[in-house]
Each structure stands twice: as C-alpha cells, then as structure tokens.
Amino acid sequence: MDQLIEQIVTGLSIGSILLLVALGLSIIYGSMGIINLAHGEFVMLGAYAAWVFHTYLGLGLLASLVPIFLVVAAFGWVIERYVLSLLNNRPLDTILATWGVGIMLQQAVRLMVGSELRYVQLPPALADSMDVFGIPISSYRVFLFVVSIALFGATWLLMNRTPVGMKLRAIIQDRSVAASFGINAKRVYALTFAYGAGLAGLAGALVSPLKSVSPDMGTGYVVDAFMVVVLGGVQSLAGTVASAFILGELSGGIAFLQNDTVAKTIVLLAIVVLIRFRPEGLFTARVRA
Predict the structure, then answer these.
(1) Which of 1, 12, 57, 162 has the smallest count of CB within 10 Å of its CB?
(2) Sign for the pseudo-dihedral over CA of 245, 225, 149, 140
C-alpha cells in the first residue's frame, strides 16, 4: 500500500510538471493553430531568467516569478507581432519559422552565457519535505502541483470569463465576422501568444530547481508538451489537465516497474496508437458530419 501511494504521488508530481509545460502550448496551438516548435526554448528562457535574477540581482525564485512571466511574455509578443503575424494561413511556414526561432535562441544563449550547466536553488521555505499519508514528499513538488492547478484555473477564467477570451473564441469561430464587429484579430493573437509564451517561461522557472539549466533543455519539454496536448485534445483545456496527469501516472508506474527509457517508449507508442484511432484526442467531442 505504501508503494502504491508513493507511485500515485510520484505520478501527480510528474503530471504537474507536464501540465506546467503544456498549458502555454495548449493556448497557442489550440486557439491559434500555430505549431510552435520554439515552445521548448521559451521554457529554457524562463529557466535562464530564474538563474539570472538569482545570480545577478539576488532575487529568490518565488520573488522572480512575475518578472519572468512578463519578460518571456514580452518576447513572445515580439515574435508573434513581427514574425508569425506575417505568416497567416501558412502553417508550414510557421513551423519553419518557430523552428528557426528556437535554434536562434539556443545559439544566442550559448553566446551570451556559455554552454555550461547552470543550477537554480530551491526556495528555502520549500526545501524540506512533508508527510502525505505517512510518506515523505518534497514540499516543492507539492507546491508545483498547487501552482499548476492554479494556473489552469487562471487560464480557464481568462479564456471563458474575460473580454480577451471571448474575442479570441469569436475569432476562432469566424475571423471575418469577428472583424465586422470591430475585433482586432492581430492584437488578440499577439496577446494570446504572449500569454502562452509567458506560461512556458513560468514553467521553465518552476522546474529549474529540479533540472540542470542548459541551452538545449527545451528539446525534451516540447516533445512532452505536444504529447499532452494531442492526447487531451487540441482545443480542450480540461483535456490538457486530464492528459497531463494520465501521462504522469502512466510514466511513473512504468518507470517504477522498468526504467525511464522504457516508460517514455511505451507512452509514446501508446499515443501513436491512440492518434491512429482517435486523432482528435481523448477529451474532444466527436463532430458528426
């Protein structure tokens, strides 16, 4: 029973990290239809921003979260406004453009701070552990779980209860009709992409104490993020949450029985098979022809 509880908690921990990384991509891909291959580099920027704020400004991780979100969101706004907005209705070109942006970001980081591994310190208040059903669990991992759920709640409210969210949903339904009502699609798209990029940067900052920070750290995260979004359904925020924790529990359980490599292989194969029979994802309603 102790091992079962431990594996469930481990799966929730993995799922919370997957949700943090995938939430921003879910907004960009699901709402705008942009396959953002630079999403992992936005995660990497957030991790490096956490390191810079701590090393050069003396700010702790918790105190730097809001500035990190704003910095990466501003960078995302620039990318959308001056690169992606010029490629409307050209999905293959946006794939190439975001791939190129990702490579440029990696090389820029290497030139500015080098390729050496960097490390971000855990917040002292969250460096201990707590008992969950008699099992010691890292306080920071519990904190990540709470933050991931809170960010999902904030994103859901933004998309469903704010003017920006309603305008975005109107543009998704019919851009020309939305424009006839005075909705500026370019401005809404820029804000949406900026928010998704900011979430990615926030995810990078939050996972940086658990992983070493390097220029190519985002490569693995972008694969994980796309797996979560595809499994949950491209336009389903709730599906993103469910798929993140399903993959977290599945990965944690298989890794316990075998190892991490086998777990990733089996999970990836399972998603490929799922896409073959249900390409719209698990949590998107089928549309009758």
Answers:
(1) 1
(2) positive
Length of the chain: 289
DSSP readout, the chain?
-HHHHHHHHHHHHHHHHHHHHHHHHHHIIIII----TTHHHHHHHHHHHHHHHHHHH---HHHHHHHHHHHHHHHHHHHHHHTGGGGTT-HHHHHHHHHHHHHHHHHHHHHHH-SS-B--PPPGGGSSEEEETTEEEEHHHHHHHHHHHHHHHHHHHHHHHSHHHHHHHHHHH-HHHHHHTT--HHHHHHHHHHHHHHHHHHHHHHHTTTS-B-TTTHHHHHHHHHHHHHHH-TT-HHHHHHHHHHHHHHHHHHHHHS-HHHHHHHHHHHHHHHHHH-TT-TTS-----
User: Tokens for 217?
Assistant: 């750290």
Q: How many CB atoms lie within 10 A of CB 282?
A: 15
Gap between the Cα atoms of 5 and 8, Å rounded: 5
Tokens 């939050």, residue?
206
pLDDT (0 to 100) of residue 284:
66
* Predicted TM-score of the model (pTM): 0.90
Interior/surface letters 160-189, b for 16+ CB within 10 angstroms, e for the rest: eeeeebebbebbeeeeeebeeeebebeebb
Taking only the tens place, the pLDDT of each residue in 265-274 is 888 888 888 8
Whether the Cβ atoms of residue 254 and residue 267 lie closer than 8 Å to each other: yes
Average pLDDT over residues 171-177: 78
Q: Residue 237's closest CA among 186, 168, 142?
A: 168
